[in-house]
Amino acid sequence: MRSMWKGSVSFGLVSIPIQLYAATENKNVSLRQVHEADGGRIQYKRFCTIDGEEVPYAEIAKGYELPDGEMVVLTDEDMSELPLASSRAIDVLEFVPLESIDPIHFDKTYYLEPQKNAVKPYVVLRDALQKASHVAIAKVAIRQRETLAILRVHSDVLMMTTMLWPDEVRVPDFGFLHEDPPQVRPQELTMAGSLIDSLSEPVFEQEKYTDSYREALEAMIEAKAAGNETAKPKAVGAKADVVDLMEALQASVSEAKKTRKPSTAKKATAAKKPASGKRTPKSA
């Protein structure tokens, strides 16, 4: 695991320097869109819908579309001016029982590792949470977005789970909720209870369940690879008419991270318009 964020857990007058790690990972099999005939990858261009020119990654900003279609453009400088009171700090606000929080509010989960000089206060907070059977409610800012979070103990490690804000949880408003409920006979309710009892276990053992779809997909890929049922796309020259956009985007991202300025080569190819019929994902 690689540390993705450094900061501190702050509660009362105590500050615990920590490093943040993603606690989960997506195990989905990554598949590309390809041309069935030859295995060539299907890619798309980032281009401006007004001038038709390809846009370098460094020149892409964020925008908010108003109801009348006008666009409010927000630059990196604009975004940096927004106040984030809890930046680089996990600010503990209160302590509550875990069962008082509905899991629908849970978002992403992270491990917290203490920095070398902070092991003792880290262990104190960890053990105190376990003894109190409570979790800490905190506020934190990650990737320029402030959110609530809970701190709890898992496998002797402090774990942080970010939470959705109350207005981000949709209220169910289905038609049947406003109608008279159907009459349920006692026998039907008893039978349903018997079914629950027959399938009940004292604890949830997640290890006994597996992702059968992913296992079958991986087996299919391995079988095709073993039987040489593969396609080797032809190399595309530097002056080819067809552009491998994924490679171009990956190169653009790498270059942007290094210099944050478009290269001369990208400027030279920026004037080419995308082929008709191509669809471009709409920016958020």
UniProtKB/TrEMBL annotation:
<dbReference type="InterPro" id="IPR006164">
    <property type="entry name" value="DNA_bd_Ku70/Ku80"/>
</dbReference>
<dbReference type="Pfam" id="PF02735">
    <property type="entry name" value="Ku"/>
</dbReference>
<dbReference type="InterPro" id="IPR009187">
    <property type="entry name" value="Prok_Ku"/>
</dbReference>
<dbReference type="GO" id="GO:0003690">
    <property type="term" value="F:double-stranded DNA binding"/>
</dbReference>
<feature type="compositionally biased region" description="Basic residues">
    <location>
        <begin position="275"/>
        <end position="284"/>
    </location>
</feature>
<feature type="region of interest" description="Disordered">
    <location>
        <begin position="253"/>
        <end position="284"/>
    </location>
</feature>
<keyword id="KW-0233">DNA recombination</keyword>
<keyword id="KW-0234">DNA repair</keyword>
<comment type="similarity">
    <text>Belongs to the prokaryotic Ku family.</text>
</comment>
<protein>
    <recommendedName>
        <fullName>Non-homologous end joining protein Ku</fullName>
    </recommendedName>
</protein>
<comment type="subunit">
    <text>Homodimer. Interacts with LigD.</text>
</comment>
<feature type="domain" description="Ku">
    <location>
        <begin position="52"/>
        <end position="180"/>
    </location>
</feature>
<dbReference type="InterPro" id="IPR016194">
    <property type="entry name" value="SPOC-like_C_dom_sf"/>
</dbReference>
<keyword id="KW-0227">DNA damage</keyword>
<feature type="compositionally biased region" description="Low complexity">
    <location>
        <begin position="265"/>
        <end position="274"/>
    </location>
</feature>
<comment type="function">
    <text>With LigD forms a non-homologous end joining (NHEJ) DNA repair enzyme, which repairs dsDNA breaks with reduced fidelity. Binds linear dsDNA with 5'- and 3'- overhangs but not closed circular dsDNA nor ssDNA. Recruits and stimulates the ligase activity of LigD.</text>
</comment>
<keyword id="KW-0238">DNA-binding</keyword>
<dbReference type="GO" id="GO:0006310">
    <property type="term" value="P:DNA recombination"/>
</dbReference>
<dbReference type="GO" id="GO:0006303">
    <property type="term" value="P:double-strand break repair via nonhomologous end joining"/>
</dbReference>
